[in-house]
Amino acid sequence: MAMKEKETRDFQSEVKQLLHLMIHSLYSNKEIFLRELISNASDAADKLRFLALSNSKLYEDDSELHVRISINKNNRTIKINDNGIGMSRQEVIDNIGTIAKSGTKLFLESIDSNNSKDKLIGQFGVGFYSSFIVADKVSIRSRAAGLPIDEGVFWESTGEGEYTIANVRKSERGTEITLHLRKGENDFLDIWNIRRIISKYSDHIALSVEIETQNKENNTTEWEKINKAKALWTRNKSEIKNEEYNEFYKHITHDFKEPLAWSHNKVEGKQEYISLLYIPSHAPFDMWNRDHKSGIKLYVKRVFIMDDAKQFIPNYLRFVRGLIDSSDLPLNISREILQDSKITKNLCTALTKRVLQMLETLAKNDNEKYKIFWKEFGLVLKEGPAEDSINYKNIVKLLRFTSTKNNTSEQTISVEDYINRMKEGQDKIYFITSDSYTAAKSSPNLELFHKKDIEVLLLSDRIDEWMMNNLNEFEGKKFQSVSKVDDSLNKLLDKEIKEQKKIEKTLEPFVKRVKDLLDNRVKEVRLTHRLTNTPAVVTTDINEMTTQMAKLLSAAGKDLPDVKYIFEINPNHPMVKRISDIKNDIDFNEWIELLLEQSLLAECGTLEDPNKFIIRMNKLLMI
């Protein structure tokens, strides 16, 4: 085989890591490599079909697409050969010499930190690299469709840090991968074992998978098709087994775990389309990356159009995987047309409702699976109320929280659960936001609610404050922060307020004295009867920015005005009674400053000058 421009290159560092783990880690399911390579061949065929819509010459007089597998026992090799889109020299370097996916590095780090190599290697979608699980040398011959036959490319590596690449002649387009098997991998030289693996993992793909057989009668080579080669989503649901749905999910996602749920639907009428949507059981590593790609594949009349069809699923459901096959969209559709298409918007509306129904069914019928979903994707779903007013009610039903009725930070309580437990006469859904579950649970703002045995939702995820700005009401019940001043809180205190009128009258001079001291540093000074164990708290007015929102905006680099707090003092607390009797202005001022700093620390989690607070507290402790 004549080679030109031959050179040896080093792998990217992340590839070296990955190959090292592939080669040296124990692995319980080695046969997965064949599924990965066949899936890659299927993707190559899909890309060729799409590009050939506008340039039929790419078929090069061969439009019957397939992937062929042959075994050579003497040479101990398996050859996987497809006639899909193929690769140019630069594409081979880009696709195999480097790892472009941003999640792969995090994946490698997680394996090292979890020390779970034997469980994860090869079960993560590492595609081509899984070849090195069973092979000690891998060779590739490829030519991109449309390129001259002398612009084929040869690639070879033993997976030990470098690879050889050169230009070669290749008459057929597509990619041929040859695996030189390691010692001890004789099972993969058994044609019946290869048949079994293909039937198990690749029966559902819409590409003919053929295996080389020998006709003993006339001593000729024949290619026998092993899989159904009929797109799974086009088949009748009653004919498809759960195992086939699971394997198809793994095929299109390269995921190693089975999905939590799926929905397969064929719609006829004004719009005709088939959708097959999956809810994964774990989040990808790049879920929060800005370049995170949608998991929805678009087909038009069984022809693959694009991988990253973001137009069909809103961003807060970006964890959904699957495909849509439409009969109404034009085959030569572009992304710009797709964005403006009324059909596209209607499909997005329908698929959104389908996903929300799927999640609602999962929540009702399988609580354990929904817990897994919420743990993995709850933060993403919390973006929903702000993004999708049309499906607001359905989204809120799916949200989960922890509360003062829980003894755990696990978020398992729905808003419907909360409403069913509301006290007689309670007309609001109470919540508190904080930096952590512990801080929320121990907030002094909850003391009244503990006393009245009223449940409060505890929110401590970073997104929660932003989410609550878009959660107005549910089933006629408004959401109310317990750290804000509100008339509904006064209704809970009717009895206490009547009993404390005399105390308030006698403390009017004390309140005025505090106001004069703090002046415009606080919005207001008032007595409160919603505290039991705490001498004072700071709260915000109903229209004022909350502490948590100020923190979020500050973290985003926004310049914000200072939050003006209301300083609420508990007249029944022994410390307050003692301070109110202090005549010396210097000592009185020190104690009030201490109370305010304590309140700010409890609310904000930090102080502008913590050392000043410590000095003041130590000084007063010595008195």
UniProtKB/TrEMBL annotation:
It is found in: Cytoplasm. It comes from the Bacteria. Residues 29-185 form the Histidine kinase/HSP90-like ATPase domain. GO terms for molecular function: ATP binding; ATP hydrolysis activity; ATP-dependent protein folding chaperone; unfolded protein binding. InterPro entries: HATPase_C_sf, HATPase_dom, Heat_shock_protein_90_CS, HSP90_C, Hsp90_fam, Hsp90_N, Ribosomal_Su5_D2-typ_SF. Its main location: cytoplasm. Homodimer. HAMAP family: HSP90. Belongs to the heat shock protein 90 family. PANTHER family: HEAT SHOCK PROTEIN 90 FAMILY MEMBER. This is Chaperone protein HtpG. It comes from Candidatus Pantoea edessiphila. The gene is htpG.
